[in-house]
Design goal:
Helix 2 runs parallel beside helix 10 and helix 4 packs antiparallel against helix 5. Strands 9-8-18-19-20-17 form a 6-stranded mixed sheet. Strands 1-15-2-3-11 form a 5-stranded mixed sheet, with helices on one face. Strands 14-13-12-16 form a 4-stranded mixed sheet. Strand 13 and strand 14 form a beta hairpin. It folds into 3 domains: 150 residues, FAD/NAD(P)-binding domain; 143 residues, no CATH class; 118 residues, no CATH class. The two termini are 41 Å apart. With 430 residues, the protein is α/β, with parallel strands linked by helices. The structure holds flavin-adenine dinucleotide.
Length: 430
C-alpha cells in the first residue's frame, strides 16, 4: 500500500467543493481495512474499486452452489489478545465473521514424498512437535522461534504500537537463506520450516527472512478459517465505511492521479469522473500506482525503477467441487512437495509438472467428516499468460478473452489436475 500525503495549507476552490478527506484507490483488503479504520476515526472516506466485486484477492465465489475462496484460505493471529483479533475487535466485526480454528497440533501439514510433518500452533507446541522427528535440532528450533519473535518485535504496526522505520531496518536485510542456514543445521528441517512458502511466493535467495517471520509467526500464534467465506470480512469493512458516512464505489477504475502545485490534487476515473480529497492512499501495485501518477515531482528514473522491479511468480488455483463423502475433510492445510526440494519450482520452472501444491479443504456441513471441495494452489510462470496481460474478462469490462486463452487456461488446469490426481487417490490413506 502506498500512502501519499501532502500539506493542507494550499486548499483551493476545487477541494472545498469536495466532501471527502481521503480517497483510497483499490477496494481490496488493504484499502477497505484502511478505509474502515479511518472512517471509524471520523474521516470522510471514499474507496474507488475498479471491479464490480469488492475485495480484490479477498473474494469468495460459488461453484455448484458451494463457496470457494479466491485466495485467503486461512488467517493467523485471531486469538484474543493477538494482533488481528485486536484490529477486528476494535472494528467490532469479530463476532460477524464465522471462524473455525485449525487443528492445534497441525495447522499446516508438510509432505515430502512419503514423509509427513506437522507445523503446530503455539510456540512451545511448534517446537515440541518438530522435535519429535528432529530431537537433535531442538535447541535450533528454540533459536528459530526466538529469532522469529525478535524480527516481528521490530515491526511497530504488527505489534499495534507507534515506532519508526529505523527499527525495521535493523532486521530487514537478511535473506531467508542466510538466516535459515545460520539457525537450522538439518537440511530436511530447513525445508519443512519453509514448506509453506506458497503463502508468500518465497524465493530462498531473494526473499527477506522478515517476510517469512511475519507470516509464519501469525499462523504459529493461531490459525483460522473463515467458514462462510473471507468475503464476509470485505462486506463488514464496507459496512463500517458506509455507517460512518463514507462511500465504497464500485466499477470506478482510477486512471490518473494528478498533482497540482506540488501536491496530489485529484484522481480521475475511466468514466470521466474526478475525485478531490485532502489525502490519497493507493492500495494497488506500486508499478500501476506510479504509472497513474501524473506528477513532475516523481523522476522518470524512479518510475522506471519501480516498474522494472520483478514480481514474484504467478499462482494457479484449481477449485474442485467433490462428490459427497469422497475425500475426508482435514482441519488443516497440506503443502505437498513431490520431491524433497521445496525450491524446485523456482530452480527449474515447469508449468507442465509442478513440484509443490498447497491443498485447502472445505468442510461439508451435511457430512462434516468429509470435504465438499478442495482448492489446489501451484506456482506457474507469469510468462505462460503474457500475451493476454492487457486483456480482461470481468463484468465491468464486458469483454471476453479469445479462444486461445481459454485453450491455454484449460490446458494448465488439466495438467495440474492430472498431476494432482495421483495424490487424491492416496488421500484417504493419509
Ligand atoms: C493465491 C493467493 C493465496 C493467498 N492465500 C492467503 C491466505 O490463505 N491467507 C492470507 O492471509 N493471505 C493470503 N493471500 C494474501 C492476501 O490475499 C493478500 O495479502 C490480500 O488479499 C491483499 O490485499 P490488497 O488489498 O493489498 O490487494 P488486492 O487484493 O490486490 O486489492 C487491490 C484492489 O485494487 C483494485 N484496483 C487495482 N487497480 C485499480 C485502479 N486503477 N482503480 C481502482 N481499483 C483498482 C483491484 O481490483 C483490487 O480489488 C493470498 C494471496 C494469493 C494471491
Amino acid at each position: 500500500m502506498i500512502s501519499i500525503t501532502f500539506n493542507f495549507s494550499n486548499l483551493n476552490c476545487f477541494e472545498l467543493q469536495t466532501s471527502s478527506d481521503i480517497v483510497i484507490v483499490g477496494g481490496g483488503l488493504g484499502g477497505l481495512l484502511c478505509g474502515a479504520l479511518l472512517a471509524k476515526e471520523g474521516k470522510k472516506v471514499v474507496v474507488l474499486e475498479k471491479n464490480k466485486q469488492l475485495g480484490g484477492s479477498l473474494q469468495s465465489f460459488g461453484v455448484d452452489g458451494k463457496l470457494f475462496e479466491s485466495a485467503v484460505h486461512y488467517m493467523g493471529s485471531l486469538q484474543k489478545g493477538q494482533t488481528l483479533f485486536k484490529i477486528f475487535n476494535y472494528l467490532d466485526i469479530i463476532d460477524s465473521i464465522s471462524l473455525k480454528r485449525l487443528d492445534l497440533d497441525c495447522f499446516d501439514q508438510i509432505i515430502f514424498g512419503n514423509k509427513s510433518y506437522a507445523l503446530a500452533q503455539g510456540y512451545e507446541n511448534f517446537i515440541e512437535t518438530l522435535s519429535v522427528d528432529f530431537p537433535h535440532q531442538r535447541e535450533n528450533l528454540v533459536n528459530y522461534i526466538r529469532e522469529i519473535k525478535t524480527v516481528c518485535s521490530h515491526f511497530p504496526l504488527y505489534n499495534m504500537r507507534m515506532g519508526s522505520l529505523s527499527e525495521k531496518l535493523k532486521v530487514t536485510h537478511f535473506s531467508l537463506k542466510e538466516k535459515m542456514e545460520a539457525l537450522i543445521s538439518d537440511n530436511d528441517l530447513r525445508q519443512i520450516l519453509v514448506g509453506n512458502h506458497l503463502l508468500y511466493a518465497g524465493n530462498y535467495e531473494s526473499t527477506p527472512f522478515y517476510i517469512h517471520a511475519l507470516i509464519e509467526n501469525s499462523y504459529i500464534e493461531s490459525s483460522w478459517k473463515c467458514q462462510m467465506g473471507s468475503i464476509q470480512i470485505a462486506k463488514c469493512l464496507q459496512e463500517i465505511i458506509h455507517q460512518n458516512g463514507g462511500q465504497v464505489l464500485r466499477n470506478k477504475q482510477v486512471t490518473n492521479m494528478v498533482e497540482q502545485n506540488g501536491k496530489l490534487d485529484h484522481v480521475e476515473t475511466s468514466d470521466n469522473e474526478t475525485y478531490f480529497a485532502k489525502q490519497f492512499i493507493s492500495n494497488v501495485h506500486p508499478a500501476y500506482t506510479y504509472a497513474m501518477l501524473d506528477s513532475k515531482m516523481v523522476k522518470p528514473i524512479t518510475k522506471k525503477r519501480i516498474q522494472a522491479t520483478p514480481n514474484t511468480p504467478a499462482a494457479l488455483m484449481i477449485n474442485i467441487s467433490l462428490h459427497p463423502e469422497s475425500i475426508l475433510y482435514r482441519n488443516h492445510n497440506i503443502y505437498l512437495h513431490k520431491q524433497t526440494n521445496v525450491w524446485l519450482d523456482f530452480q527449474q520452472p515447469n508449468d507442465e509438472n509442478p513440484n509443490s501444491f498447497g491443498i485447502f479443504f472445505y468442510q461439508d456441513a451435511q457430512h462434516p467428516k468429509y470435504a465438499r471441495g478442495l482448492s489446489i494452489l501451484t506456482y506457474m510462470a507469469g510468462e505462460t499468460f503474457r500475451e493476454w496481460e492487457h486483456t480482461f474478462h470481468t463484468t465491468t469490462s464486458g469483454q471476453k478473452r479469445d479462444m486461445a486463452y481459454e485453450k491455454r487456461r484449460r490446458h494448465s488446469q488439466a495438467v495440474s489436475s492430472t498431476r494432482f490426481q495421483a495424490y487424491c487417490r492416496g488421500c484417504r490413506k493419509l
